[in-house]
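User: Can you write out an input/output pair for a complex, sequences first and structure second?

Assistant: Here is one pair. Inputs:
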Amino acid sequence: MPPALDKTLIVMPAFNEEESVRQVVLEVFAKLPGVAVLVVDDGSTDNTSSEALAAGALVAHLPVNLGVGGAMRLGFRYALKNGFDNVVQVDSDGQHDPANVVALVEQLDTADLVLGARFAGEGNYDARGPRRWAMIALSAFLSHTAHTRLTDTTSGFRASGPRAVRLFAEHYPAEYLGDTIESLVIAARSGCVITQIPVAMRPRAGGRPSQNPLKSAAYLGRAALALLFALARPPVPLHRGATVA
Amino acid sequence: MTLATYIFGVASAVLSLAVVIEMLRRRRLRERHAVWWLVAGTLALVIGVFPASLTWAAGLIGIAVPLNLVFFVSVAVLFLVCIQHSAELTLLEAKTRTLAETTALQEMRIDALEKLLTAATNQHRESN
């Protein structure tokens, strides 16, 4: 195991993912032997918890569904309490290739937050129509806020270094789109260094991203609103004493 | 104004104030949630007892029909109560979220401790 990975916690938010979670956890262990994996069962009503336990992951079971943001903050709090420096978020539906985790964590030497970006030249994920325009507009705004070029701001595949973990353990938003858009704004305005690396995304194990134009328009509106409110809120200071790894 | 309408106005104000105060007394309502209701009830009582005060207040800010002042103040009070409730709801959601996260973390610790305890107990039995 590369040295950085023994201080790294993989956090997997999972809501009713009994069909895929065991496979995904097993794949993480196969590609990153010995790494710590925390599956956050976000109030699932199926066997997500027992499937994850059977695969050998640590499992935290939330009594109610909090959404990805709530599940992730639990992950950050767990990491802080148990001496992990870095947190890598990996989806429990198999979209993210665990092999990329090493590359993400390597970037934490110089950055606080590393995004695995889908449109940065690798992989074959594509969104079309209004949803794609929304993503491009979001990226432009957020690149400006984060002082770096970000091409895929809604990516859930990201690594957080020690400063970001401390910040997110307190301030990770739970609202819709808060876990992606607002968390980026919070990190950027607190002075975190943000960067991205290209990763390939695989098709989801179950379900399809929606291409319905009405839903896309609603998504665009909610994303714009989330961004607006995120920018309007006062910035939170970084924890004193914490430094870039 | 007839005596009946006068009595009706005063009685309504007294009744609404009494409900709020009684609920406060029984701790069914916290002071911070009762403030706006107390303000509204007191205003209603003052206007009920001295109807001329309404006409005077309306004249003071140039409202031609005094009744419109009543409607305006009523809507304003309801608006403030609603906003206060939304803010409280947001706060409660944030607290629930923190509690849910904490229970999940504690459940993990308890599970780990139980495992250790079982292992220790078994070891102790074997050694005896």
